[in-house]
Amino acid sequence: MTMISVVIPARNEAENIGSLIDEIDAACAAHGNYEVIVVDDGSDDGTDRVVRDRMTGRSNLRLIRHDRSGGQSAAIHSGVRAARGEIVCTLDGDGQNPPAEIPRLFAPLLAPGSDGVGLVAGQRVGRQDTFSRRMASKIANGIRSRLLRDGTRDTGCGLKAFRRDAFLALPYFDHMHRYLPALFNRDGWKIVHVDVGHRPRGAGRSKYSNLQRALVGIVDMVGVMWLIRRRKRSRPTEIAVEN
């Protein structure tokens, strides 16, 4: 049975991470062969202690800790590199992404004839965010979709599933997690979209403001457009000669 690695990037989520791990266990129990990797992105609220307490007697729960905060993309990248599974699922550490959706994400990657599918991207419906954040996200997603033509209405959703080797072949840069559909498409992979639920944050607050997201997004958008235009277009074929 294919192993699934669930990667959770988390920064200062001590109040949310314990119950989130329990929900992931409940969601993945039917599959059986899975692991959960929490990447503590330089937390100072004891997030790592909560995870350590739950690791006792559980060989499939792992903890990776950054010595300083590197951001969500850095945390995801560290988790994927450490993952033992062929398929990786991600979700945010704040509890807003329902873990019950995880099986619906990895299913298209395990289905017969799915060899060409590289990424399954969750698309939030009924978002439980403030009006200003929803509007900022809608505008940013509209601009991104028009410029990158990635066919995705919501790249900010933390619920995603993808092939580990395909992800690690992508060029790494900070904030790349928001451009995964465009990057996977750049490398010739098919993208599947799945509508998923969304919940209010359990505790704490968001780590980024709308202004911060917008300013960073402008630079990243230009960079991704450059990467798409400079992609490798030739396809190698090895020629064998009978001796």
TrEMBL record:
Q: Which UniProt keywords apply?
A: Cell membrane, Glycosyltransferase, Lipopolysaccharide biosynthesis, Membrane, Transferase, Transmembrane, Transmembrane helix
Recorded superkingdom: Bacteria
Gene Ontology cellular-component terms for this entry are: plasma membrane
Q: Transferase among the record's keywords?
A: yes
Glycosyltransferase 2-like domain boundaries? 5-167
Name it.
Answer: Glycosyltransferase involved in cell wall biosynthesis
Q: Which Gene3D superfamilies match?
A: Spore Coat Polysaccharide Biosynthesis Protein SpsA, Chain A (3.90.550.10)
Question: What are the recorded Gene Ontology BP terms?
Answer: lipopolysaccharide biosynthetic process
Provide a Gene Ontology MF annotation, just one: undecaprenyl-phosphate 4-deoxy-4-formamido-L-arabinose transferase activity
Q: PANTHER family annotated for this entry?
A: UNDECAPRENYL-PHOSPHATE 4-DEOXY-4-FORMAMIDO-L-ARABINOSE TRANSFERASE (PTHR48090:SF3), UNDECAPRENYL-PHOSPHATE 4-DEOXY-4-FORMAMIDO-L-ARABINOSE TRANSFERASE-RELATED (PTHR48090)
For this protein, the record's CDD domains field holds:
DPM_DPG-synthase_like
